[in-house]
Amino acid sequence: MFEALGIDRSDEQIYLHLVRQGPSSLAALAAATGQGRRTARAAVARLRSRGLAQLSPPPHEQVIAIPIEIGVEHLIRQRRHDLEMVRQTATRLADQMRSRAPAGEVVVLPGQTDATIAIGKAQHELRVLARSPSWAPAVPRPRTVTYRLVCDTSAPWGHEVAQTRLAHGIPANLALADRTAALMQLEQSVLMVRPGRLFDALDALFEAIWSSATPVSSRSPSAGSLDDQDRAVLSLLVAGLTDDAVGARLGMSRRTIARRVQRLMTETGAHSRLQLGWWARERNWLQ
User: What are the tens digits of pLDDT across the range 190-204?
Assistant: First the structure.
């Protein structure tokens, strides 16, 4: 669930066990998760370095999970910081390459150029990060090109052709046509980038944002289609409660909770409960 935020599965297993079961000794944690004590100790160290866990004072040293809503928000902010560093590095590299790069590898285009120029170059796939509303191109029908679009939450979103996702704080306007060309908007100009190290960095930037963005589904329910119990379930799940705990709080069975969550995931197109939580926050569904 947290792989998009840089947490591997073994660390995720440790963290979720702590969230669900509460503070635990290192020995008990290793036994409960089936990991060796050395592996569990290393996982706890990584979780502490990422701000997801802490240790209680000795002599009864316990591993304590940071509440999931706080931990996830911390990871998201860190990822934004990392992506901003990528953007700044790419911008500096682009400035250097204007004078050093071989002819044709990087081309500086007029500042008013937008992503529509990438449409004609894409034969198989068009990928776009839209920091500003005017950047995302409309692809005319019929087209056989796969179109993946990530819009900043501050910009209008939704596209009848594109697979659309939402993300906070997109660092730059970017369009990639297949694996052959990229367009990146800078302050006063737009760079057209051919395959090479800079292109690889922009490719990685898009995929990192795409993997952690919230899907937008044309089948998503409106706020009015949610009842009070749906809102209560979402609020408690985002707060880190288990299905059993939510059921006990609301007087429902675990099966009923799981069924409601699965229905909401299907209607929104969310691939995980974490994405469903982000979706709910974006729509102000939480009470």
Answer: 888 888 888 888 999
